[in-house]
Amino acid sequence: MPAAQATKVRAAPAARTLIWLQGLGGLVGFALLLEIVPRIGIISPDYLPPFSTIMIALFKEMTTATFWTALGDTLEAWAIGLVIAVVAGVVIGIAIGSSRLLRSLTHSTIEFLRPIPSVALIPLAVLLFGSQIQSTLVLVVYASFWQVLIQVLYGVQDVDPVARETARSYGLGTWAQIRYVTWPTTLPYLMTGIRLAAAVALILAITSEVAIDTHGLGKEISDTESGGAVAIMYAYVIVAGIIGVIVNLGARALERRVLAWHPSVRLDAAEAGA
């Protein structure tokens, strides 16, 4: 191995380690700020307990069945809603994107429905399903679906017309064109959509639990706030934040793994090792 290439290989882990250390330093600084601010009286500990108090409350709460049940309920609603949104977004996106007529017929409808906030559907969800997981799924799927659909539409429209015509000239059928021409071009867009949808799905899952009172972390946040258990409330908020970080890191890792063949991922890897 050439000396320059070997140096880049050794530098890549060092660069990633530095990024991780910088991120960790930011979290430690934020934790220190949360510890100091209430102790010096800038904010009353009644409204914002010190970080150490919040963590003690979190560790105590983690020994209860309530905590793990709430965590499981939130993750269940998040995962089911995300899967439904991704499958629907891919199927509908490829169907619409592959047809000029469908694109024309649905463009105005999509632009009308997409900006509607999911929380506006809370009355409808409650009316249909009450305080059940289905109500949460309505909001999660609606919000996440658009993230996937729009990205898939962009991906299908980005297919090289020459490649599409070449596939047709070789007699490839519809499914073969989707598999060998449309799908490789659309996949990077889809992974971006999945990454965005995963974060949005988590936000809406917890939001709906707070607003609709369905079981999960959001309900525990609402109940502990109403009961005056402020430290436990912040503990659940921190758990929600940790889950969000894990979801984002997992989505990025999946994106890099699925798109290992893509030039953009190879370029990022090369730059990391530079």
Structural class: mainly alpha
Q: Briefly note the CATH topology name.
A: MetI-like fold
Quote the beta fraction. Answer: under 5%
The main sheet comes to: none
Sum up the overall morphology in one term. globular
- The residue ranges in which pLDDT falls below 50 over 5 or more consecutive positions are 3-10
Percent in helix: over 70%
| First-to-last CA distance | 16 Å
Q: Count the helices. How many?
A: 11
Listing every helix as H and every strand as E from the N terminus to the C terminus, the arrangement reads HHHHHHHHHHH
Please outline what is shown here:
This protein is mostly helical. It contains eleven helices and no strands.
Descriptive notes:
Helix 2 (51-61) packs across helix 10. It contains eleven helices and no strands. With 274 residues, it is mainly alpha-helical. Helix content is 82%, strand content 0%. It has helices at 3-39, 51-61, 65-97, 100-113, 122-129, 133-157, 161-169, 174-212, 217-226, 230-258, 263-273. Residues 3-10 have low confidence and may be disordered. It is globular, with a radius of gyration of 23 Å.
